[in-house]
Amino acid sequence: MRLRTIVPMAVGILAVGLAGAGLRADPVEDKLVIDGEVELVTRAKAPEGHPFDEVVSGWHYRTDETRALQQDSFANPAMLYVERGAEIWKTVQGAAGKSCASCHGDAAESMKGVGAHYPKWNAAAGKPVNLELQVDACRKNNMQAEPYKFDHADQKALVTYIKHQSLGAPVAVDLTQGAMQSWWDKGKDLYYTRTGQLNLSCASCHEQNNGKYIRADHLSQGNVNGFPTYRLKDADVVSLHGRLRGCVRDTRATTPKAFSDDLIALEVYVTWRGTGLAVETPAVRH
Length: 286
Known about the structure:
Layout: H1 2-19, E1 32-34, E2 38-40, E3 43-45, E4 54-56, H2 64-71, H3 79-90, H4 100-104, H5 107-110, E5 120-122, E6 127-129, H6 131-141, H7 153-164, H8 180-191, H9 202-206, E7 213-214, E8 217-218, E9 229-231, E10 236-238, H10 240-250, H11 261-273, E11 283-285
Parallel strand pairs: 9-11
Antiparallel strand pairs: 1-2, 3-4, 5-6, 7-8, 9-10
């Protein structure tokens, strides 16, 4: 009997916390400049059909200290993952005796801008693939190596390294490829679908309550241009699917499998929502 009263009460408290006008704070006015040299686009005109007029990077919603960490490559703890990814890129693995560099050469050249356009349509798979799935396909088909287990440290490091080569490039998902538009449609439906005991959707936090505080966290628009990102709460680099699964879990709903069709569709949609923002990988967030 007591459990039945506690859960609705928790939902009510959460709703009050989200709706409290006194807890609102606008994103800061500032410029994201990496190492005092590379200025990144953190505000952009929203694409047609977007619920906001302007898309804003989550960097603007963080504290002064957190923003400063991302601006300094020597202070950004995720740069250790970039360094590890550079080692993996050149390391021969698998029966074919190849490394990533065997086919792609210098990542600074071959991977420049690539990460800004994922997820991409894959005709062979008949679905969109993200960078993690593309890396696994390369390992299996070209290197004859085992695909990574989800969120393996080396998987996160390699994807972070590859995405980092697109630092500053504008996010641009091509919805004209294959059936990408239908996956975008599915992702949009999922974004607005309430789930779990807390009856929340992605939009509940990142759209309807954007700019407000919940549990001392400033709710951003939920743009994903900084993933993989270093999350201070986890003291680790977090993949996009790791964060999406965490969000669903936090609504007290059944956690979907990584790279499931639902999460890939959601990735297509949420990536599109950040169209025009610069790739920030590896970003630093709360």
